[in-house]
Amino acid sequence: MEKHVLIDRSEAIKRFRPIAKDSHKGIQGRGLIIGGSYGKIGSVCLSVKACLKSGAGLVTAYIPKCGYQIVQTVVPEAMVITDDYNEHITSVDHKIELQAVGLGIGMGVDLDTHQAMFHFLKRNTVPMIIDADGLNILSHNKEWLEMLPKHTILTPHFKELERLIGSWESKLEMLENVKSFAAKYEIIVVVKSAPTLIVSKNVIYENTTGNQALATAGSGDVLTGIITGLLAQGYPPIDAAILSVYLHGLTADLAVPEMGHHAFIASDIIHYLGKAFLTLEQ
Predict the structure, then answer these.
(1) Nearest-CA neighbor of 134 among 96, 105, 162?
(2) Distance CA 261, CA 253 (A)
(3) Which of 64, 80, 106, 186 can pair with 150 through a Cys bridge, CB separation 3.0 to 4.6 Å?
(4) pLDDT digits (tens, 9 = 90+) for 97-145
């Protein structure tokens, strides 16, 4: 039996955990953002900063060499590991103890990036979110879906979703196909749309926050960072997805009265994230 749940403030508060007074960066969770390629390092900056601003204690970016100075300059709070190659990722090699991984943003779809992702998926056991080019690479290698840890979160927009599950004639057919897909691989699918929907098992969660201001480049990269940050802090994946989508939308609702729809950009989501969290603490 299908269940439909609205993601409103009460649903968000049920899942929200204030940070303990005696907490420190070592126990606030460590996240790794894997992505970036020449010309798309900004996506990593957005994601890493959002991960930090959502409360993760330590965040590392894994990027091609061309992005090293950019990330170190734009997000000085983050650490950086670089691939041996300059323009895109060819392997993912690190020795960090992690609590969460965000994979795919701005990564490109070069064949050696496919191979890097394959070898990483074979080894990875920590909670993970896959977005953007990570999803596009998966859609070319659907047998890799079997390797994903249970409750991995995928965050496709409609085009990325179509590449993963095929086309549909109606919203109802799309939802049925997403439900089957999520159940088959025991994953969580965040369908980025208006409204954003989260599908897990036989439950469809529908977000109630957000507006057209979010229709801007980098908005999804920020969402990936927020989800990774909450996963790193030990939130169960479904709670991380629900709370992140709610807060992400809420930033636009808080910002629009002050700046309107046109001028709102992805960096503003990060800027208003603190105010969004405060609405849950009050």
Answers:
(1) 105
(2) 10
(3) 186
(4) 999 999 999 999 999 999 999 999 999 999 999 999 999 999 999 999 9
Q: Which two tokens stand for residue 225?
A: 């960072």
> For residue 256, what are its two tokens?
């629009």
Alpha carbon of 142 to those of 13, 148, 181: distances in Å? 36, 11, 11
DSSP state of 149: P
Two structure tokens written together for 36 = 């970036």
Query: For residues 8 and 94, what is the distance between their CA atoms, to the nearest angstrom?
Result: 38
Question: Phi-psi bin for 260: left (phi > 0), alpha (psi -120 to 50), beta?
Answer: left
Q: What is the rounded end-to-end Cα distance, in angstroms, of the chain?
A: 36
What is the spatial distance between Cα 275 and Cα 12, in angstroms, rounded to a whole number? 15
CA distance 245 to 219: 11
- 10 Å Cβ neighbour count for 162? 15
pLDDT digits (tens, 9 = 90+) for 10-22: 999 999 999 999 9
Which parts of 141-186 fold into alpha helices (H)? 158-165, 171-185
Cα 37 to Cα 64: distance, rounded to the nearest angstrom: 6
Helices (H), 79-169: 111-123, 133-140, 158-165
Phi, psi of 98 (to 5 degrees): -115, 155
DSSP letter string, 55-96:
T-SEEEEEE-GGGHHHHHHH-TTSEEEE-SSSSS--------
Distance in angstroms (rounded) separating the CA atoms of residues 103 and 126: 12
- Host H or E run for residue 198: strand 197-200
Question: What are the CA-CA distances from residue 20 to residues 25, 27, 167, 246 (Å)?
Answer: 11, 10, 46, 22
